[in-house]
Each structure stands twice: as structure tokens, then as C-alpha cells.
Design goal:
The complex is a heterodimer of chains A (about 290) and B (about 400).
Chain A (H helix, E strand, L loop, with lengths): L2 H33 L6 H19 L2 H22 L10 H23 L15 E4 L2 E4 H23 L1 H18 L4 H27 L5 H16 L4 H21 L4 H15 L10
Antiparallel strand pairs in A: 1-2
Helix pairs in contact in A: 1-5, 1-7, 1-8, 1-9, 2-3, 2-4, 2-7, 2-8, 3-7, 5-6, 6-7, 8-9, 8-10, 9-10
Chain B lengths: L6 E3 L2 E2 H16 L2 H5 L6 E7 L6 H20 L8 E7 L4 H15 L3 E2 L5 H7 L3 H4 L2 E4 L16 E3 L4 H12 L6 E7 L2 H16 L3 E8 L7 H10 L3 E5 L2 H14 L6 E4 L4 H7 L7 E4 L8 H13 L7 H20 L4 H8 L2 E5 L2 E5 L6 E2 L2 E7 L8 E8 L1 H4 L11
Parallel strand pairs in B: 3-4, 5-6, 6-7, 8-9, 8-10, 10-11, 11-12
Antiparallel strand pairs in B: 1-2, 12-16, 13-14, 14-15, 16-17
Helix pairs in contact in B: 3-13, 4-5, 7-8, 10-11, 13-14
Chain lengths: ~290, ~400
């Protein structure tokens, strides 16, 4: 394996990993940016997405349908949770209450998944059209990972453009900066919050479905991914959408190249990166120090 | 008692006589086992296992087999004429939690017999405490070879096939394989290191070249870098010591990379849970198996039949079979000792031979390691089952796959 070929495949490996991380981190950061809620249940919503995706594939045989059904179902779960529980806490403005409630949701959701789907893992087959490899500089690279990269780029650009160029996006950004003022101007801030929370949950679910063919759907999948997601959000800056993209890519690169060159310190390197960034820029790369 | 009640026997009212009569009739009419197993104090067996967390699948196997065994034992008169009671505790696979749960079992429940511990590092954590607790621990699945070598304590036995034994079995099988160079990937904890270390030694002992090794952190999700390393190594074979969530992630991603078409993958443990989750992608996977449910003996056939009746749609996994064997051995030692005292069980278990679902196993006195046969299987599709199953390719004698006493090494 020549070095250029190796470098190319490793970079693509990192981008494909970044794509999966982006889906969970962008929802997490949007929810924090708009609502100032650190959603501890985000990993569980990612896991729920994988399980709903598995059931959809099992019932219909279509992975593509799972990519639509899982975000809708999990987005609906997120909206219901926001309406029933979180909305009652806004008046208190107590960050600790949000933490406790979302942590409770994470625990309950984990147990509910165990009751509904059982403790055993469930595999989601790679769709036939994405099976196999393509050769890049004589190096094999999975078609499925190229699909992840493409979908990640499309999703990132779409959300970015939505936030920057649409009226709804403008409202979301305005709410994140001064919710009271937006409310005073006649916009239903509560509706914006509900929609953003549902959208963030749906994005996490999409990440879960996309991850399932690589790791299967299993009960422990929320624990590790939520840590990565928090690291990304901290690196990128809490509430910064572009920061979540940059953070995802940085963390994925550190994980992929760290595992290659420093396998004994692969995990530590990611936290080291976070620490360095926090020392240099305490608010994260694109975040504001509060 | 009211003053209106009549005394129909000296000192007893009519109601008291009727109640006593009903109770006596119920006892007389009850099946024999209820009069023996049901009447006595239960034998408490602690199961500090993984109920939540990354290894919950293995814990669920432990629990379902224990529940099945309780039904079977209680129905046949219990152990020492007493019913069996399993006390399940969730350790989450964490050594500190495992120690704490065992301590609770000892102090709160006066339970001094343990099994069903999933993770080797948990076993290592509780073993030094066994003497202090006056407790006995029989491993059903802990693979770290050192548990019956330098880490051995008197009140510990291992009924199951260890990591070195699995690696040895595979090395014997690969002795005549066309592949010459082997790479290894393992999970970065006790069992993974033990397994890869044993394979490294064993594969060189049979004349093959060991091309290198790498360890992935526990809980790792992305194996692209490791797959790249395996391909870079130029090895024709790769030994995989990854279990549970990590194993499935690796095989799923290896399939996406087409790794199996370039490198022959062999593994220390072929698990039915992984086979089911991976589906057809698991077909062709070759490895040693601690317990293949397809092993054809009367004892195993009876277990598989009873298991599939109890759990329709499920097939016994390696950890079900190992748990069944460990409990069979434990109960045989209790019957031999005629006691549930830890020290007496230890004495009775030394050099005890028990025939269970994996064939005859000898619990040797010198290091408390169970001498098990070694199985090599290949995952294949079968018209009899809705999912791929492990087909046995070869069985190696227990004396050929068990290390020398108090060691993870082999004489030849």
C-alpha cells in the first residue's frame, strides 16, 4: 500500500466517521443554541433511530424507507417530550432541571428499547446497491462509506443554507440570540423551540439508522456516541452549527489517525484535543464565551 | 376465637381441625419434589452479571440459562433436596461494581456461591476477596488465562474453556492451513490481550508466522483504521479476539471492506448472537467455539430441546452452554460434598469429572482449570434453522488443548 493511497483512504475513513458524528452533534448543538438545553437523551434518540430503522427494514425490506421513517418517528417522540416535559421548565430557567429531565428520558428510553426489542443486537444489512468496494489509487474503499460522506455533505450544506437563507432559519437564529425580543415581535418562540427540538432528534435518528449497518443496533450504542457528540460540541462551540461540522471532522480525524499512529492512546488524544482547544478558546472554536 | 366456637377435639375448635386437615391433605397430595425441594431452605447462588451495559447480551444468556436450570433442578428434587435460588445483580461489567455487588450478596443475603460473572477483569477483582468472604466462585465464561495461573486463589474454579485454550484449538486447526502469515486484532482489555498473546505463541508453535497485532479500545465503533492495518500487514489470515458489540462492529465493517475476500478471518469465539445479528454476512466465519449447540451428545440434545422449548425462536449460545456446564459441575460438587460450604465444595470439586453439554470435563486439582474439549466450527447456512449455525469441523481432545498446570503455556 503506497503512502498516497493510504493517506487518501484514511482521510475518507475520517470523513465517513465525521458524517455519522455530524448527524448527532448538529442536533445537539442546535438544541443547545436555541433552547440552552444540554440534551442528555440525545444518544438514546440516536439508538432509538437505529432500532426503528431496524424494524422498518425488517418489515419492509427497504433501508431507504428506514431513512425516512426513523427520523419522523423519533422526531415525533422528541416533539412530544418537549411539549409534555421540557416546555413546563422554561419559565424556571433552571439548567439543572433540564439535565435531570433529559437524563431521566435517556434512562427510560434505554429500558423501553430493551423491553420492546429485547437485549439482543439486531443487524441492519447494507443495501445491495451500496455493498462492495470501489478502488481509489488501488486501495479498496467501501461504497457505503462514500454514501455516508455524500449524505453528510448534502445534509450539512442543506441545514447551513436553511439556517442562513430562509425566513425560518432567520427566526431560529434570532431566537438563539434574543428569544424575548423575537417573542415581542409576534413570533411564536415556543413553536420554534418545539420544531428545533424535533428536528435535532430526527437528525440523531438519521445518524442511528446510518450507523446501524456498521455497528448493528444494540443497547450500548448510545453511551459511547453521546460522549463523542459532547466533545464535538465543546470543540466546535456550544450552539454553533458550523462549529459542529468542524468539530465532527476534527474528532473523526483524531480518532482515525490516532488509532493508526498511537493505538494505545487513541481515546486520550481526542480528549487532549478538547483540552487544548478549551485552553486556547474556552468557548470552543466558533462559540462565544459566556 | 369467639366463645361460640365448639371444641371438637381436646383443646381445638372445629375450624382449627378443618384447617389442619386441609393442610395435611395438601402436603400428602403434593408431588414428591415439592415435599423435598420446596420444604427446605433454598441454596442461594449469586449471579453478579452484566444486566445493563455493553455486555448485557452475555448477561442475558447467563440469566436465561440460570432460570431454566432452576426450573429443571427444582422439578427433579433440587440440589441436596433443596431448591435453588439465583440472586441476580447488575455489575454493568465494571470490576468495582462487581466487588460491591458480591459484598452485598455476602452481607445482606448470606450468599457465598458466585457464578455468571461476565468480564474477566470483574473476576480478577473479586477473586482476592473470596477467602475473606468465605465464598466460592466458579467461572462459566471468564477467558483470561491468568485466572488459573498466577492469579489463582483456592476458592476459584474455571469450568469453561479459557482464551489460551481457544487459541490453542484454533492453532492446532490452522497447523495444516494454506495461510502462513497471521495478524491479530484484540480488544484492549484482559481477555483480548490474553487471547491474542496465546494465539501469538500457539500459531508460532505450529510453524506459522505471526505478522503483528493491534488492540482496539473497549467500546470502539470505527474499525476502518484497524482494517487498513490488517490489509497493510500482508497477512493471509487474521485472528479476531473481539466480542459482543465490538465483534459485530468489526465484522460488519470488514464485510463492507471486502476483507474476507483478501484475508481469512478466524476467531477465538464464534457466538450465535453475532451470527444472528450479522445474518448471511457471518457465513464462512471460522473459529474455535467454547460451546457449539450443534454438538451431538444425548446430554446436549436434551439441553437444546429443553432450551428451545423454554425460549422459542432462540438457540443456545456459547455462554448458555458454558453456564449450563458450570452449574452442572457446581451441583455435582455440592452433592459430592453433601454441603454448600465453600471449603467443602472446593475439596469436592478437585479432580471431579462431570459429563455435561460439552462432554466430559475434568476439574483438575493442580490449578482448578476445567479440562474441556476444543471445538472448531464454521458458520454455515442450514435448512433446519432460520439463521446460520456453527457446523463443527473438528474436535480436539481436552488434554491437547488444556495448558500445563498453573500456566497459560503448553508443553509442545
Amino acid at each position: 500500500m503506497d503512502f498516497v493511497g493510504f493517506l487518501l483512504t484514511q482521510c475518507l475513513n475520517a470523513f465517513s466517521q465525521a458524517a455519522v458524528l455530524f448527524f448527532i452533534a448538529c442536533g445537539l448543538t442546535l438544541i443547545f443554541g436555541i433552547m440552552r438545553i444540554i440534551n442528555f437523551a440525545h444518544g438514546s434518540l440516536f439508538m432509538l433511530g437505529a432500532y426503528v430503522g431496524y424494524s422498518t427494514v425488517a418489515a419492509t425490506g427497504s433501508f431507504w424507507l428506514a431513512l425516512i421513517v426513523a427520523p419522523i418517528v423519533v422526531g415525533a417522540v422528541g416533539i412530544a417530550f418537549e411539549k409534555v416535559f421540557l416546555s413546563r421548565l422554561y419559565a424556571r430557567g433552571d439548567g439543572g432541571a433540564y439535565l435531570m429531565v433529559t437524563f431521566g428520558l435517556a434512562v427510560i428510553m434505554g429500558e423501553m428499547i430493551r423491553v420492546i426489542w429485547g437485549p439482543h443486537p439486531h443487524g441492519v444489512a447494507t443495501p445491495d446497491i451500496l455493498r462492495g468496494v470501489v478502488f481509489l489509487l488501488d486501495q479498496p474503499f467501501p461504497k457505503y462509506r462514500l454514501f455516508l460522506i455524500a449524505l453528510g455533505v448534502i445534509a450539512a450544506i442543506s441545514v447551513w443554507q436553511f439556517l442562513e437563507r430562509t425566513r425560518a432559519g432567520l427566526l431560529i437564529r434570532a431566537v438563539s440570540q434574543n428569544a424575548e425580543m423575537v417573542q415581542a415581535l409576534g413570533t411564536d418562540v415556543q413553536l420554534v423551540r418545539t420544531c428545533v427540538f424535533g428536528f435535532g432528534c430526527a437528525m440523531a435518528a438519521l445518524g442511528g439508522v446510518l450507523a446501524a449497518p456498521m455497528v448493528t443496533a444494540f443497547l450500548g450504542m448510545s453511551a459511547s456516541v453521546i460522549i463523542d457528540a459532547f466533545v464535538i460540541v465543546i470543540i466546535g462551540g456550544m450552539g454553533s452549527f458550523l462549529g459542529s461540522i468542524i468539530g465532527s471532522v476534527l474528532v473523526a480525524y483524531v480518532q482515525v489517525f490516532g488509532a493508526y499512529y498511537f493505538p494505545n492512546m487513541a481515546l486520550a488524544i481526542m480528549y487532549l484535543l478538547m483540552l487544548v482547544i478549551l485552553v486556547v478558546r474556552p468557548g470552543g472554536l466558533l462559540g462565544k464565551e459566556e | 376465637m369467639t366463645q361460640k366456637s365448639k371444641l371438637i377435639l381436646p383443646g381445638m375448635t372445629r375450624r382449627q381441625v378443618v384447617k389442619a386437615g386441609l393442610a395435611a391433605t395438601a402436603v400428602a397430595a403434593a408431588p414428591g419434589y415439592m415435599r423435598t425441594a420446596g420444604a427446605a431452605t433454598p441454596i442461594k447462588i449469586g449471579i453478579p452479571t452484566v444486566i445493563t451495559g455493553g455486555y448485557a447480551v452475555l448477561g442475558s444468556h447467563v440469566m436465561r440459562t440460570a432460570k431454566l436450570v432452576k426450573k429443571m433442578k427444582d422439578a427433579s428434587g433440587g440440589v441436596l433436596g433443596r431448591p435453588v435460588e439465583f440472586l441476580f445483580k447488575d455489575t454493568q461489567g465494571k470490576p468495582a461494581d462487581c466487588v460491591r455487588k458480591c459484598q452485598e450478596l455476602v452481607e445482606r443475603d448470606d450468599c457465598r456461591i458466585f457464578t455468571g460473572v461476565v468480564v474477566s477483569s470483574e473476576a480478577r477483582a473479586i477473586m482476592p476477596k473470596l477467602d475473606e468472604w468465605n465464598s466460592f466462585f466458579i467461572s462459566h465464561g471468564n477467558g483470561d488465562g491468568r485466572l488459573t495461573a498466577e492469579l489463582l486463589v483456592p476458592n476459584f474454579f474455571r469450568a469453561n474453556t479459557s482464551a489460551p485454550m481457544g487459541a490453542r484449538t484454533l492453532a492446532l486447526f490452522l497447523k495444516n492451513a494454506e495461510q502462513n502469515d497471521f495478524y491479530a486484532i484484540g480488544s484492549d482489555y484482559a481477555w483480548g490481550h490474553s487471547s491474542v498473546g496465546a494465539f501469538e505463541t500457539q500459531i508460532q508453535n505450529v510453524g506459522k508466522n505471526f505478522a503483528g497485532k493491534v488492540f482496539a479500545p473497549v467500546g470502539n465503533k470505527d474499525y476502518s483504521t484497524y482494517i487498513t492495518k490488517i490489509m497493510q500487514s500482508g497477512a493471509q489470515g487474521c485472528y479476531v479476539a473481539l466480542q459482543g458489540d465490538e465483534g459485530r462492529a468489526f465484522y460488519s465493517q470488514a464485510q463492507q471492506y471486502g476483507l474476507a475476500s483478501r484475508v481469512t478471518m478466524v476467531t477465538e469465539i464464534v457466538a450465535q448472537a453475532n451470527i444472528r445479528a450479522l445474518g448471511k454476512d457471518s457465513v464462512g466465519l471460522t473459529g474455535s467455539s467454547r460451546y457449539p449447540f450443534t454438538y451431538e451428545t444425548p446430554e446436549n440434545a436434551a439441553f437444546v430441546k429443553r432450551f428451545t422449548e423454554e425460549y422459542p425462536g432462540e438457540l443456545p449460545d456459547w455462554s448458555d452452554g458454558e453456564m449450563m456446564q458450570a452449574l452442572d459441575i457446581l451441583f455435582a460438587a455440592m452433592e459430592k460434598a453433601d454441603s454448600t460450604d465453600a471449603k467443602k465444595i472446593v475439596a469436592a470439586m478437585e479432580d471431579l469429572e462431570v459429563t455435561s453439554v460439552k462432554g466430559a470435563t475434568l476439574m483438575r486439582k493442580c490449578d482448578h482449570q476445567g479440562e474441556n474439549q476444543g471445538f472448531v466450527v464454521r458458520v454455515s447456512e442450514s435448512s433446519d434453522y432460520s439463521e446460520p449455525i456453527p457446523q463443527i469441523l473438528n474436535i480436539y481432545k481436552r488434554e491437547d488443548v488444556t495448558p500445563t498446570c498453573n500456566s497459560t503455556e503448553y508443553a509442545n
